[in-house]
Amino acid sequence: MIAMATLLWLVTGCAPASAALHGYHRYTNPSVAMEPTLRANQPFSARPVRHGGYVPKRGDVVVFTMPSWTPDGRGTQPFVKRVVAIAGDRIGCCSGGRITLNGTPLAEPYLAPDTSETAFGTVAIPPGQMWLMGDNRAYSADSRAGHGPVPASAVIGVAVLR
């Protein structure tokens, strides 16, 4: 049986792959949480961001560290998720099975085809924070899973997707 800590890492985390290449950092996505955008075990590049230098933009796929997201609450393991809402936004679920952003159902063409949303109440995103979710919602532990909004200062890179 897989230990809970290992399962959490497989569902939410990403792993550094190799050293930086032309100023970009390489990571490997170890789970299905970001499919179809990033397949399990797919390497990807991320443009590094200096601490506190990331300005959240809806739709970005970001690499970040949040000790509270790790099983022991102290880790520096990187995670990868999509920015779905930014400071000042109100996000909730569901309207016709879709996430609502500021009261309007959100078009999310990047989602896994069989995605169905689990209801959660409306959340106002505070200044300096953002709401992060995986693209394969059924298999993603993210802001909905009790983690809530994430500080923009936690972002260490922005994925470069082709």
Strand order of the largest sheet: 1-2-3-12-4-5-10-11
| CATH architecture annotation name | Ribbon
Integer-rounded radius of gyration: 15 Å
Strand content: 35-45%
E-strand count: 12
* Domain unit count: 1
CATH classification class = Mainly Beta
Q: Could you please say which CATH topology applies here?
A: Umud Fragment, subunit A
Care to give the gist of this entry?
The protein has 162 residues and is mainly β. It has 2 helices and 12 strands.
What does this structure look like?
The protein has two helices and twelve strands. With 162 residues, it is mainly beta. It has a single domain, classed as Ribbon (Umud Fragment, subunit A). Strands 1-2-3-12-4-5-10-11 form an eight-stranded antiparallel beta sheet. The longest helix has 9 residues. It is globular, with a radius of gyration of 15 Å. It starts with a helix and ends with a strand. The N terminus is likely disordered. GO terms for molecular function: serine-type endopeptidase activity; signal peptidase activity. It is an enzyme of class 3 (hydrolase).
